[in-house]
Amino acid sequence: MAGSALKRLMAEYKQLTLNPPEGIVAGPVDEENFFEWEALITGPEETCFEGGVFAAKLTFPSDYPLSPPKMKFTCDIFHPNIYSDGRVCISILHAPGDDPMGYESSAERWSPVQSVEKILLSVVSMLAEPNDESAANVDAAKTWRDNRARFNEIAHQTVRKSLGL
Amino acid sequence: MPVVLLERLPLPSLRTYVTVSVLLTSCAIYYAHLAQNVALGRISDPSSTQTNTDGAPKTPPTWPKTSEGYFYDKIAILIGEGWCVWALINMAYCCLILVGKLIQRIVFGKLRVSEQQHVKDKFLNFMFYKFIFIFGVMNVQNMDEVLLWCTWFSVLCLLHLLTQLCKDRFEYLSFSPTIPLSHHVKVLVLLAVIQTNCAFLLLLSVFVGYVYAGINIFAFMAAECILLMTKSMYVIVRYAIHLWDMNHEGVWENRAIYVYYAELIFELATLSIDFCHHLHMLLWGHIFLSMASLVICMQLRYLFHDFQRRIRRHKNYLRVVSSMEARFAMATKEELEDNNDDCAICWEGMDTARKLPCGHLFHSACLRSWLEQDTSCPTCRMNLSDPSERTTQAPVTGDINGNEPRPDAQNNDLQNQMTNHFFHFDGSRYVSWLPSFSVEVTHTQILGNGLDVNLAPIHTSQLDNMARQVQEVFPTVPLSSVVDDLRMTHSVELTIENIIEGRVTIPPAGFPSRTHQSLLTTPASATTPPPGGAVPVPMGSGSVPVLPSQGVNLLPSLGGAAMAADETRENGADLMDGHDGLNEPGARNLLLFGDSKEEPSAMYGHRFSKSAAERETMLGRRKEHMLEQARRRFASRQLSQGCVDDNSTSYASLDHQENLYPSLNVDSAIRFTSAHVPGSEASDGQQDIANSIRERAYLAAQRRMRHN
Question: Is the Cβ pair A99, B406 closer than 8 Å?
Answer without folding.
Answer: yes
